[in-house]
Specification:
Elements (H helix, E strand, L loop, with lengths): L1 E8 L6 E7 L4 H12 L8 E5 L5 E6 L10 E3 L5 H4 L6 E7 L4 E11 L8 E6 L11 E2 L2 E2 L3 H11 L6 H9 L2
Parallel strand pairs: 4-5
Antiparallel strand pairs: 1-2, 1-7, 2-8, 3-4, 3-6, 6-7, 9-10
């Protein structure tokens, strides 16, 4: 079977992506194809959420096994699309920027029963693709606070050169 998905952005109204992929593909293959199609860095962590018609999370599909053995969590490497997506209008949320909780909204819009597809294909694409990471503070997979973040942290917590300012009061209580 071949699944056709419509992918929309909550940030850019004009963005639209339609792809077709074989239903026996894993979520890992789906993830790789999405990242390539969008021009995203594949080193960053992504997740899929299987959701209901109101976009409420039912199941999470992660790139690695977290070791918690939760029934609501599967891994991308071993989970096929057809094992969790069974009918037209099934919905997913594809979280591509975990730190900033940014995602695409995906809906299965067509199933072609009597065909198989060797490689996934982009059927249609329009609008600008949202940037993968919105903060310039994220460089090469490492969070680097910029000057504004450092200034804000200083304002929030103060500059402590002498920790007795904090701990001294506690010592006086003994």
């Amino acid at each position: 079977m071949v699944y056709s998905f419509c992918i929309l952005s909550g940030e850019i109204d004009e963005f639209y992506l339609r792809i077709s992929i074989d239903s026996s593909s894993t979520f890992e293959e789906f993830n790789q194809f999405l990242q390539e199609s969008l021009g995203y860095d594949q080193a960053l962590i992504t997740t899929f959420d299987i959701v209901d018609k109101n976009w409420n999370k039912l199941l999470e599909i992660t790139p690695i096994d977290t070791g918690f053995n939760l029934p609501s969590q599967l891994t991308m490497h071993t989970t096929t699309l057809e094992s969790v997506i069974k009918e037209i209008h099934s919905r997913l949320i594809y979280r591509f920027d975990i730190l900033n909780d940014r995602a695409f909204f995906i809906e299965l819009i067509d199933i072609t029963m009597e065909k198989n597809l060797k490689d996934p294909v982009v059927i249609a694409k329009q609008g600008n693709t949202p940037e993968q990471v919105v903060s310039e503070s994220f460089i090469s997979g490492v969070w680097v606070p910029d000057e504004l973040d450092q200034k804000q942290a200083s304002n929030d917590f103060g500059d402590f050169m002498d920790y007795s300012e904090i701990y001294g009061e506690m010592l006086d209580l003994q």
